[in-house]
Amino acid sequence: MGDVANGRLLTIDNYYEIFNGLLNPKQIEGLRLLLTPFPQQQFNQTEDRRSVRPSMGVSCFDCHSNGHTNASTHLVGDIRPQELRHRIETPTLRGLNVQRLFGSQRALKTVEDFTEFEQRAAYFDGDPVIATKKGVNILERGSQVHFMAEFQALMDFPPAPKLNVYGKLDPRRATEQELRGEAVFNGKGQCVACHAAPYYTDNLMHDLKTERFYKVQMVNGMKAVGDGKIKTFPLRGIRESPPYLHDGRLITLEDTVEFFNLVLETKLTDTEKADLVAFLRVL
């Protein structure tokens, strides 16, 4: 996206000027819909809103800026009771075409399914009555949803010049530390068990059983419970999309490596952890 936008933030005001002649009419319309604000639980034109003035709503690209992410988190909309609702991170849309599961913990099978789910449920905390009151926008599956998906399928991962055609390090371009990190990734670190090249995902869901490490308890009105099954996100371009894990609890790649070192009990040394981070930064 960046090579076309040339550093500009895509908006409803400039998208046509930038992409006219580069996209087909369906893709242009899909991009328009991704940039068009629609009513949502907190931002709408009723008295029940978060903004001072009535709002047209939010667009997909308000959070997925330029098809990437603004690194924000939000309260998951469709879980009850309230104490079990947790925050989820806004993932990047880069490389969406290689993914087969959508939603960090919902296992929706297509991006079209996810688009409809967001509009009908997640945008309004899973309440169809409130959605009707606040102006839910029901997208037409056969055209509008399809157009949005067709555009999103164009968004690729960022360049990774040190990787070869198989998605693995090219020894002629990689540093010794990066090569050691790749060895840790594929060996002692056990990362490859879920994150296989070339896109570093298995497109499955896994339960890390994090409840092993704490007691179920209430913390600031929320119940601390296990995460359950979590989608394996692709690691390509991971350096550009902090924070990490499905809820953004891990701020840096170093934090992420340490988290999995504890959860998977891999007992990596400080040197191995540093090498692994160096490898992740070139994906």
From TrEMBL:
Residues 176-283 form the Cytochrome c domain. The keyword Metal-binding applies. GO terms for molecular function: cytochrome-c peroxidase activity; electron transfer activity; heme binding; metal ion binding. InterPro entries: Cyt_c-like_dom (IPR009056), Cyt_c-like_dom_sf (IPR036909), Cytochrome_c_Peroxidase/MauG (IPR051395), Multihaem_cyt_sf (IPR036280). This is Cytochrome c peroxidase. The keyword NAD does not apply. It comes from Pseudoduganella umbonata. Keywords: Heme, Iron, Metal-binding, Oxidoreductase, Peroxidase.
